[in-house]
Amino acid sequence: MATERRRQQQQHPFQFVQRARGQLNSAKRASKMAPGRQTFGTVLLFFSLCCVTSGVILRTTDKDVWANEFESIELSCLIESISTSNPRIEWKKIKNGAPSYVYFQKKISGDLENRALLREPANLLILNVSRSDSAMYRCEVVAIDDQKSFDEILISLAVRVKPVVPRCSVPNSVTAGSSTELRCMESEGYPLSHYQWFRNNEELPEDPKTSVRFYNSSYIMNAETGSLNFRTARKEDAGKYHCQARNDAGAAKCAPQLMEVYDFDIWMLLLKIVAGVIAFILIIVGLCQAQKHSECFCRDRTENDYKVPQYDSGRDCVSVDEGHFRHKSSFVI
């Protein structure tokens, strides 16, 4: 009986109140005819009527709502009990602790203007949801004719955002036996994206040891950060790699990029070592020649003093500092 009464109240609250009052009056008249039996029924109806008309009561079908970006979502604010025929309904958006009006004085306002509408009894329908709509929403109902004249419901709305094309970094060439890392990242998706790598359009298992095909591979994949780390690259690891970012709103992937794995070339290594040694020797020889030339020039300047002529193995030097004419050592009068 209580369930049926509640259902009727939700569908026709005002008619239910009038019908309950009529039943109470009928019970009073009947009590005069059969006082003993009707007294209990009168008390029961009076108690039910008091519960119905005690005040405004709200409920919602979902306090934590998720919606995909660019879709529509309806926030439910259902009036379970009310006596006031024309209650005041308001919706507020609370973001970063600051409330702002969404529905006030029977019209939509704020950043939801022209993107939302109120549906009976007090539901808020948001059209073309955007990521900026993620916030707490509060439905408030004021019923001045009710004993409990105010009630409110708080609803959380989170908007899912599809990932954008991730940025992928794949090395062009890798030497067999060396380590290398492939990276994948995007920052627009909400909730945070998880990443999956593919080689030649074949999905790589997160743990290579779980697959016979990839059992000998030495990579470590991190689905949360998007990294694919090869501890020891093998010839079989060569191929076209691409990454996919995915969350509850959708997925996006980058273009495939080729990674080649070359064998270790000992002759090329020796050639590089020899070239490095030759370059080092040439640098040392050049430095020695430059130092020797500098010492010779300085010795020539210090040994050629104009007061005490110096003679050395037939070399004739003239000091650049002399301000007068000097005979050379080979000059004969």
UniProtKB/TrEMBL annotation:
Keywords: Cell junction, Cell membrane, Disulfide bond, Immunoglobulin domain, Membrane, Signal, Tight junction, Transmembrane, Transmembrane helix. Residues 71-156, 163-259 form the Ig-like domain. GO terms for cellular component: bicellular tight junction; cell-cell contact zone; plasma membrane; protein complex involved in cell adhesion. It comes from the Eukaryota. It is found in: Cell junction, Tight junction; Cell membrane. The keyword Signal applies. Pfam families: Ig_3, V-set. The chain crosses the membrane at residues 39-58, 266-287. GO terms for biological process: cell migration. Gene3D superfamilies: Immunoglobulins (2.60.40.10). It is a single-pass type I membrane protein. PANTHER family: JUNCTIONAL ADHESION MOLECULE 3A, JUNCTIONAL ADHESION MOLECULE C. Belongs to the immunoglobulin superfamily. This is Ig-like domain-containing protein. The lineage of its organism: Eukaryota, Metazoa, Chordata, Craniata, Vertebrata.
